[in-house]
Amino acid sequence: MEKILRNPKFTIFSPITQLVIRNLNSRSFETLAFEEIRNTSEKPYTSTAFILHGLLGSGRNWKSFSRDLVSALNRSSSSSSDWRMVLVDLRNHGRSAAVKDLDPPHDLGKSAEDLANLVKSQGWAWPDVVIGHSLGGKVALQYAQSCANGDYGENSVLPKQLWVLDSVPGKVSSVESSGEVEKVLETLQSLPSSIPSRKWLVDQMVKLGFSKSLSEWIGTNLKKSGDHETWAFDIQGANEMFESYREESYWSLLEDPPNGLQIEIVRAENSDRWRPDVVQQLESLAARRAKDDSEGKVSVHVLPKSGHWVHVDNPKGLLEILAPNFISSPLT
Q1: What pLDDT, in 10s, does the model give residues 148-197?
Q2: Rounded distance between C-alpha atoms, residue 320 and residue 298, angstroms
């Protein structure tokens, strides 16, 4: 079943229950939870972008930004494209945390394969664009790499464009990071699985030294369960995904992107995740000149006045980077 929510500008397709898909891999299984956002135009959509959230987040974190993006693209596109945004809950996150068929290992490879299984199970065309923030950025890179390798079957289609939002493409050691993510994960694992209230959680985290804004954002990942609150994500599975995020490197993909693929890296100006040598390496790759339009290429954008949480810190600036550079959708 599918519940259709309407407002004057958008139609949001929100699955009420997980769809059970049969005859794929010879057994029934559930796929990732998702929501669709597109204009209420009567004409069908012609282009699709997947949006992948970061660690401990969910697709709904990107709902407001997605509305603005799809509106900008459909309003300003010089072509007849009508865009649809698919907000995915990655495994162990959001409503996908309740899906029992997403077997381990909980790593980037399986997370990207989940996207391919979602496409196949729904009978969709393969996405034209994949946008990923932080953890989701590396899932997007893995997805493109696996498509290029033919891992999803001969009928799979490489996206035309990836947007990797404040996600370091190489390995990330704990020594190089600030340790805040590790501290959050450790803290959440130490808390009871049943939380008295959101206010209790925020107060506890602030006492432990976390900022009020971060604590309140963590609180948005609670869901009601009787008289208490429980996590909307699987903390152990999310931790395994984070370990995979730190270990995997996609420099080889950036150094030799598949023909026809545009990889757009967005680095937040005030993010503390970027070493000078990494920034220099990215800029060197972006400076290369493609021999022809069919070659893959890498571009780098800097989002001003923003830390790591790009869609919260400077959503207007992020929109001004994405919309005019979206594949086949130049602003006029």
Answers
A1: 999 999 999 999 999 999 999 999 876 655 567 778 888 998 888 889 99
A2: 19
Count of positions (residues) in the chain:
332
| Beta pairing class for 228-231 and 47-52 | unpaired
Q: Which CATH superfamily is domain 2-170+247-325 in?
A: Alpha/Beta hydrolase fold, catalytic domain (3.40.50.1820)
25-73 pLDDT per residue, tens:
333 458 999 999 988 666 788 999 999 999 999 999 999 999 999 999 8
Which residues have CB under 8 Å from 214's CB, separation 6+?
184, 205
DSSP 209-239: T--HHHHHHHHTTEEEETTEEEESS-HHHHH
This prediction's pTM: 0.87
CATH 3.40.50.1820 placement within the chain: 2-170+247-325
> CA 128, CA 115: separation in Å to the nearest integer?
13
